[in-house]
Write a structure and sequence with these properties.
Strand order of the largest sheet: 1-12-10-11
Number of helices: 11
Oligomer: single chain
Helix content: 40-55%
Bound molecules: iron/sulfur cluster
Radius of gyration: 21 Å
Order of helices and strands: EHEHEHEHEHEHEEHEHHEHEEH
Structural class: alpha/beta
Mean pLDDT: 94
Largest sheet: 4 strands, parallel
Shape: flat
């Protein structure tokens, strides 16, 4: 019989838990509730909430709505979304994670405090087009420069001031490589400041998940393929245990993966519901019967 362990450190972070709780509370009141974008990067959890009545919309669809309630998910939104809500008399249920809100404020203060706004380079290490990053860039009248990886650091102007921030779910190691590179290339007349704004909810999971992945013959990493922090954590599992597979649901488990192994570890991202990891465990148990 194969031993199966579900990682206790995996699952929703408090930002996502709070957003889902807010949605459930509103829906329980019988309110018609819209959510701007997927509430969590997990198709199955989105489906569960859709069945409860949550209607997911995009920005174009929000423009057509008036006098309704719209929930903003943990990733946050740029100021234009709040402006649109005011114009269309939309009540916002703001589930922006407090960690993201704090980061938005810091970037806004940095931008507003610049003597000549737009002169210093406000740089965000993050994924272009990601909802959280759009919310951050929006604090700077869209002047912030987004770099997705260490390779893009060379496009910065090292003769001008640089203020570096990070999307909350990026890799701490890569962030430090970027800092080191800028430090060694910035001109003597320019100022460089970096702000470690990586959420420890994800960063702290790295060492834990890495240990977990080494303990098992097979790792099933359960997560939506769109999740940023999922990608970071999955890659770490894969690095320490090449027998790691990313799956979105139990149907993706291949019987041949279970051949000649003693133990399976099931883990996931901050957006992975516990119930889904349990379903994966149950699917393996059934396959062994
Ligand atoms: S990963 Fe961190 S910043 Fe992002 S929603 Fe969760 S707690 Fe908030």
């Amino acid at each position: 019989m194969i031993q199966i362990e579900i990682d206790n450190g995996s699952g929703f972070c408090f930002g996502v838990t709070t957003a889902i709780k807010k949605a459930e509370e509103e829906l329980a009141k019988g309110t018609k509730l819209y959510c701007l974008g997927d509430i969590v990067h997990n198709g199955m959890e989105c489906e569960r909430l859709r069945e409860m009545g949550l209607i997911t919309i995009n920005h174009d669809e929000m423009r057509q709505l008036h006098n309704v309630k719209v929930l903003l998910r943990a990733h946050g939104e740029p100021p234009e979304t709040y402006e649109l809500a005011r114009k269309n008399n939309i009540e916002i249920i703001d589930a922006t994670c407090p960690v993201v809100l704090q980061l938005q404020k810091r970037i806004k203060q940095q931008y507003d405090g610049s003597e000549t706004p737009g002169d210093a380079q406000i740089v965000i290490f993050g994924k272009k087009g990601h909802a959280e990053v759009l919310g951050l860039v929006g604090q700077t009248q869209s002047t912030a420069i987004v770099i997705e990886s260490f390779d893009e650091v060379t496009k910065l102007d090292f003769s001008r001031d640089i203020y570096l921030y990070s999307q909350t779910t990026k890799s701490l190691d890569e962030f430090h490589r970027i800092i080191d590179y800028i430090q060694s290339h910035i001109s003597k007349d320019a100022t460089f400041k970096s702000f470690d704004t990586i959420c420890r909810n994800v960063a702290n999971r790295m060492p834990n998940i890495s240990q977990f992945a080494t303990r098992h013959d097979l790792i099933l990493f359960v997560c939506g393929r769109k999740s940023s922090n999922g990608k970071v954590l999955f890659n770490e599992c894969l690095r320490v245990n090449p027998n790691t597979h990313l799956i979105e649901d139990p149907q993706e488990i291949q019987p041949e993966w279970l051949e000649d192994i003693q133990t399976v570890g099931i883990c996931g991202a901050t957006s992975t519901p516990r119930w889904l990891m349990e379903q994966c465990r149950d699917a393996i148990l059934r396959m062994q019967q």
